[in-house]
Amino acid sequence: MPLAYKRYKTTLTEHHSSGHYINQMKGNIFDLCGKTALITGGNRGIGLAIAKALASHGADVAIIARTKQQLETAAEQIKAETDRKVWTFPLDIENIDKIENFFEDIITETKGVDILINCAGTTVRGPTEELDLKSWNKVIELNLTAVLALSQAFCRHRKKSGKSGKIINIGSLMCHGARATTAAYASSKGGLLMLTKTLAVEWAKYNINVNAIGPGYIATDLTAPLRADEDFNNWVLSKTPISRWGRPEDLAGTAVLLASGAGDFITGQIIYVDGGWLAML
């Protein structure tokens, strides 16, 4: 057996003994067997694509959304494609005061959550001078405050268990820059990036990695009206070097990287999956 291979196997053994679920025989540092992931907004679009990706790498998954029927449909898809265990939890996480007790119910049901994906979000569009505070608060509460509340509950759970954890927040191109008529959304995503960095710095001592993914323009049900607008669609394509809208599945690999042992030395970062959008002047 070559010396380099012996050293590689030794490294994998050390990872396994320190609590990482890494496939020692195959050296699969992306393996998520033995892990449970909780995904908000996991019933469709980006959240569903990430749930399927994590499950396909061995994780059991719990998905949260407002609509029970959509959750059940998504769960059937995940089970059919991956044969992993799936739990569904209907909740509007805009109800911030319910999150802590709800999270405890999830822990009771799943026996523990190793990975938290904060994907649920909303937006309002319109001239900022006409933006009412009710709409502003709705966006900030769902996109930012609910993320904080869920992350706090997750942190307390991981501290109590004495085990490591991974948090992945779904950001936006607006973590980097703004576009007219999106003041609430841009502010929430800018805040999300700084929350990601702050939690990464503060919770590293608990062995919790906190990162974000910044999607470019992704083709989902929510962006269908934008794609139907010929001028806007052409603008997106002209700004994207890869010359297409992204697909939810385009974020899968990055999510698996950050959720798995392959991402153990990555924290406080945002990875943009944008088809080259931010690279082009």
Question: How would you summarize what this structure contains?
Answer:
This protein is of the alpha/beta class and 281 residues long.
Helices and strands in order:
Elements: H1 3-17, E1 36-40, H2 45-56, E2 60-65, H3 68-82, E3 86-90, H4 99-110, E4 115-118, H5 133-161, E5 165-170, H6 183-203, E6 208-215, H7 224-228, H8 230-239, H9 252-259, E7 270-273
Parallel strand pairs: 1-2, 1-4, 2-3, 4-5, 5-6, 6-7
Structure report:
Helix 5 runs parallel beside helix 6 (183-203). The N and C termini lie far apart (51 Å). The protein has a seven-stranded parallel β-sheet, with helices on both faces. Helix content is 45%, strand content 14%. It has one domain (19-273): Rossmann fold. It is globular. It is built from nine helices and seven strands, in the order αβαβαβαβαβαβαααβ. Helix 6 links the parallel strand 5 and strand 6. It is α/β, with parallel strands linked by helices.
Instruction: Please describe the biggest sheet, giving its number of strands, its sense, and whether it closes into a barrel.
Output: 7 strands, parallel
- Strand percent estimate: 5-15%
Question: How helical, in percent, are the residues?
Answer: 40-55%
Output the helix-strand order. HEHEHEHEHEHEHHHE
CATH superfamily: NAD(P)-binding Rossmann-like Domain
Please name the CATH architecture.
3-Layer(aba) Sandwich
Q: Which structural class fits the helix and strand makeup?
A: alpha/beta
Strands, count: 7
- Cα-based radius of gyration, to the nearest Å: 19 Å
Number of helices: 9
Mean pLDDT: 92
